[in-house]
């Protein structure tokens, strides 16, 4: 099972395609990723051989590579999804039917470290637009662009029938536009507006519109087509917007991936380019819904990393390319499954030595530290109820209704035996709580009064009588002349 069940010949041909730009580098630039520049030696060997038999292709990989299973720390398996190249009807000119523009990269779009002369911009990171000569502000988001922020500037490549078609093309990264005369226009990813991608399917799941176990691209399309007003709001949750360029490919040629080489249906995958090197072979094993929504088709194939995507994050994460058209879209749209990842390391690479130079994530805090610093949201402060003012008359009435036998209250107001009366702080007798029918005095405690203005004094010894102030006579002096 597994490796022996797959025919590695198509994977070898795909790998050989990726090796063309790798082997052509005379002085490869040092790469901080896991494999670095170690693919150069097996790529030179692959370009030198013309293999046409499955047995020899298997022998090539077993001779030049060492398998290593990979996954996230603490997890056993990775995760796979699928993508494809849509084929959509369109027009070169705007009409009543075709009125949704596909924009090329605007001239005022700016990415640090890149210029307009670059073939394509990165699919992650900040993107700005120039205002004047020096000022940079974040680029327009999806809502602003749909509302016409860059309309009328001659940026339209083609026109489509609906915003839903455009959204799916932006998610996939490329498309074949079938014009009214039967010709095909090929478009490919060129730049984005700098906002992170938000999956619209996740929004539908969180709103309980589509159950998680039934989610697929087909379900999303059906919802958008039947609810156009809700679809507009849903699209704008994803503020990311993709710009395209027209590429010169034949109608039957496969799409070009981020590595710059044509993709192979069923053998090319998109990976996290911040971790992996294009051209790396991965053996992926799992049970996927290839034949139908409920099927568990065994999938055990050697795949080659040739593309990337903003939603592809992590070491054991891949997007499988299934080709072009509606059938490929149906298969790709229902993939969201766990799978086992085995990366093939070139024999020239020592994983132990290479691992010593790779940064590792910080250790998780211990249970003791986690208790001391719990990751919980701070409790919201509840506003205190304002203290109601009680008039002096109410306090006097309450004191009259108080029973005479109140030993506890008198003990509180009397001076302590341990201290002389003169050293005691003047204590004011406050009206205690009164039983019904005096709810006001019972519910609200009386505020403490100042000693000089207290209506009732507990003991005369605790209050000193007021002594008249001694008059001071100030003698006036006349300055001598």
Could you name the key traits of this structure?
Barwin-like endoglucanases, 21% strand, Ribosomal Protein L25, Chain P, RlpA-like_sf, 481 residues, 2 domains
Structure overview:
Pfam families: 3D (PF06725), MltA (PF03562). Its EC number is 4.2.2.n1. GO terms for molecular function: hydrolase activity, hydrolyzing O-glycosyl compounds; peptidoglycan lytic transglycosylase activity. It is a single chain. The longest helix has 15 residues. It is globular and about 60 Å long. It is an alpha+beta fold and about 475 residues long. The protein contains 14 helices and 16 strands. It has a six-stranded mixed barrel. Strands 4-8-3-9-10-11 form a six-stranded mixed beta sheet, covered by helices on one side. Helix content is about 25%, strand content about 20%.
CATH third-tier fold name of the largest domain = Barwin-like endoglucanases
What's the domain count? Answer: 2
Major sheet: 6 strands, mixed, barrel
Q: What distance separates the N and C termini?
A: 124 Å
Number of helices: 14
CATH class group of the largest domain: Mainly Beta
How big is the Rg?
39 Å
- Give the SSE string: HHHEEEEEEEHEHEEHHHEEEEEHEHHHHH
Say how many strands there are: 16
Derived structural class: alpha+beta
**What's the arrangement of strands in the largest beta sheet?**
2-15-12-14-13-16
Oligomer: single chain
User: pLDDT average, as an integer?
Assistant: 80
What is the overall shape? globular
């Amino acid at each position: 099972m597994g490796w022996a069940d797959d025919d590695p010949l198509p994977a070898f041909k795909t790998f050989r395609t990726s090796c063309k730009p790798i082997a052509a580098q005379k002085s490869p630039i040092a790469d901080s990723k896991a494999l670095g520049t170690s693919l150069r030696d097996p790529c030179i060997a692959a370009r030198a051989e013309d293999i046409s038999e499955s047995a020899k292709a298997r022998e090539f990989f077993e001779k030049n590579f060492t398998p290593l299973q990979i996954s996230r720390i603490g997890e056993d398996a990775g995760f796979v999804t699928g993508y494809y190249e849509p084929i959509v009807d369109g027009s070169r000119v705007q009409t009543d039917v075709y009125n949704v523009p596909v924009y090329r990269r605007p001239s005022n779009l700016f990415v640090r470290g890149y210029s307009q002369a670059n073939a394509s911009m990165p699919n992650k990171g900040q993107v700005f637009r120039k205002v004047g000569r020096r000022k940079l502000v974040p680029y327009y988001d999806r809502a602003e662009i749909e509302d016409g922020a860059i309309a009328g500037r001659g940026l339209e490549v083609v026109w489509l029938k609906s915003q839903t078609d455009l959204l799916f093309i932006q998610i996939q990264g490329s498309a074949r536009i079938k014009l009214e005369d039967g010709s095909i226009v090929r478009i490919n990813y060129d730049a984005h507006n700098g906002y992170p991608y938000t999956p619209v399917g996740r929004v539908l799941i969180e709103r309980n519109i589509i159950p998680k176990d039934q989610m697929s691209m087909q379900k999303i399309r059906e919802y958008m087509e039947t609810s156009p007003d809700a679809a507009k709001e849903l699209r704008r949750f994803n503020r990311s917007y993709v710009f395209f360029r027209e590429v010169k490919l034949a109608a039957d040629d496969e799409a070009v991936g981020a590595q710059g080489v044509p993709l192979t249906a069923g053998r090319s995958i998109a990976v996290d380019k911040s971790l992996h090197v294009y051209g790396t072979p991965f053996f992926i094993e799992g049970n996927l819904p290839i034949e139908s929504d409920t099927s568990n088709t065994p999938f055990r194939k050697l795949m080659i990393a040739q593309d990337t995507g903003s939603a592809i994050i992590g070491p054991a994460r891949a997007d499988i390319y299934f080709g072009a058209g509606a059938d490929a879209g149906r298969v790709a749209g229902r993939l969201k499954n766990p799978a086992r990842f085995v990366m093939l390391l070139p024999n020239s690479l020592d994983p132990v030595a290479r691992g010593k130079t790779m940064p590792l994530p910080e250790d998780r805090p211990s249970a003791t530290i986690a208790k001391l610093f719990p990751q919980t949201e701070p409790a919201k402060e509840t506003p205190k109820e304002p203290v109601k003012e009680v008039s002096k008359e109410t306090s006097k009435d309450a004191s009259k209704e108080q029973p005479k036998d109140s030993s506890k209250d008198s003990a509180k107001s009397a001076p302590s035996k341990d201290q002389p009366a003169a050293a005691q702080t003047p204590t004011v007798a406050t009206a205690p709580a009164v039983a019904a029918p005096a709810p006001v005095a019972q519910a609200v405690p009386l505020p403490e009064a100042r000693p000089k203005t207290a209506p009732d004094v507990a003991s005369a010894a605790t209050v000193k009588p007021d002594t008249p102030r001694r008059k001071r006579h100030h003698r006036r002096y006349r300055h001598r002349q």
